[in-house]
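Continuing the batch. This is chain 6 of the set; chains 1 through 5 are on the previous pages. Same settings as before, nothing changed between runs. Recording input and output for traceability.
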Amino acid sequence: MPTYTQVTDFSAKDGLAPGNPLKVIKGADIDLDLAAIATAIALAYDSGEISSAAEAAAMTSNAKIITPLRLKSALEDATNPLTACMVNGVDLETSIATNTTNIATNVTDIATNTTDIATNTTDIATNTTDIATNVSAIAANFDEDTGRSSDAQALAMTNNATYITPDKLKHGMEGPSNTITKINVGSSPVQYGALKLKTADETISSDASLTADGTMGITGLDNTAFYAVDIVLNYSQVNGASNGLKVSVSPTMSGNKMHIVAVWEDGSTISREYMQNNSQLNASDSTAGSERSITMRGYISEAATFDVNWAQHTSNASDTTVRKGSYVMLTKLSP
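Output for chain 6:
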């Protein structure tokens, strides 16, 4: 309901002293309050704008307002379609009936699916039985003894009809007739030869003590056989005269069991040195700061192991580096 709120406090003017200009009541002041009264009256509803009980129950007019009590009475009227519970525009009773039908249909579908699952389970069980039968048949057809390669078959390596065990594979790979093992790269025992390749640079300084190279040692040699020796050492030259690389091989040999010739470049000169048994190579180089290579070839015999030892020719604080790609290769000359 709209209300009127007084704008001008006329009673307050009575307490003002004569001559006070605020004591005067002006037409403008009266206009303000009359305007507020007119607004309140315009917003108010008269009794003719309120729905009667019948109009409230009919709920067909937007021209009148409705009181809470008459709204309550209209909603409680059994003939009022709005009093039926609606779900998505459908009365509750119809909605329940429809959903009940749907539930019955879904129950039927579930029963059908359950039957299908039972059928599939039976099929799985049948297939599992078939797999078990096939595995049994495979096991029955596999004879461990007759299917295993003999020593001769392992050495020949010419058939796909038998399988090979780790011990037979080792026997076959080590056999003298097996061309696969003619050169064993880093393996032991050595049948026909071995190759050890330096895979990373190695640098020393202030060190003239011969030490075995950690990556180019070979074990498992046939100490009754002769082996051809092929060694290549690529290295960087330190600054200053009388430097270079000194090299030896081990173990110590005697009685003409090692003969090796070493060749290297000393400045613009090609130098060579003959190493017999356990002699030491002194590959000096007076050229400062250069890359050099030493090639060593010959033979050894009656050795079970073979190592290459190297150091600075003369101890020097500058670095000497043996380069990756250097290698030792031994090739068996007699069975």
